[in-house]
Amino acid sequence: MPPVIGYDIPMSTIFSKIIAREIPAQIVYEDDLCLAFRDIHAQAPVHILVIPKKEIPRLAAATTADEPLLGHLVLTARQIAEKEGLLESGFRIVINSGPDGGETVPHLHVHLLGGRPMAWPPG
C-alpha cells in the first residue's frame, strides 16, 4: 500500500489489512467511516477497537479537517458501549499516540474498555 500523502510512514498496518478483509477480525460495527472489532489482546471483559477507514497514523497527525471523523469515532464508541450494556456501569475510551503514549500500531484507533472497574491513574 502506498504512503498516505502528507504522512511520512507507509500505511500498511494490521488495521488496514483488517479493513481490507485480508486479516480476519471479530467485527462488531462498520459504517462508511469506521470499523470496530474485538481486541485479540483484551485488557477488559469488553475491549473493542474503533478504527477510522481513513489511514491516519496517530492522533498527533490528525488535522482540523479530521475533526468530524474524530467526533464520529468517539460517538461510535459510545454507541457500541450502549450495545455492550456498559452505559450504566461505565466504560473508558483511550487513544494512544506515539511510543511514549503506548501506541503499538501506527493507525489511529480508539480503545473501548469496560465490564470491570477501571483504575486511575492508568498504566
Helix and strand layout, with pairings?
Elements: H1 14-19, E1 27-30, E2 34-38, E3 46-52, H2 67-83, E4 91-94, E5 110-114
Antiparallel strand pairs: 1-2, 2-3, 3-5, 4-5
Helix content: 10-25%
Series of secondary-structure elements, N-terminal to C-terminal = HEEEHEE
Briefly note the structural class of the backbone. Answer: alpha+beta
Query: Mean pLDDT score, rounded?
Result: 91
Poorly predicted segments: 1-10
CATH class: Alpha Beta
What is the domain tally? Answer: 1
User: What summary fits the major beta sheet?
Assistant: 5 strands, antiparallel
First and last CA, distance: 33 Å
Order of strands in the sheet with most strands = 1-2-3-5-4
CATH-scheme architecture: 2-Layer Sandwich
Strand proportion: 15-25%
Give the strand tally. Answer: 5
Can you say what the CATH homologous superfamily is?
HIT-like
The CATH topology is HIT family, subunit A
- State Rg: 14 Å
| Gross morphology | globular
Number of helices: 2
Provide a compact summary of the structure:
By secondary structure, the protein is of the alpha+beta class. Helix content is 19%, strand content 20%. The relative contact order is 0.21.
Tell me what the structure shows.
The protein has helices spanning 14-19, 67-83; strands at 27-30, 34-38, 46-52, 91-94, 110-114. The chain is an alpha+beta fold and 123 residues long. The chain has one domain: 2-Layer Sandwich (HIT family, subunit A).
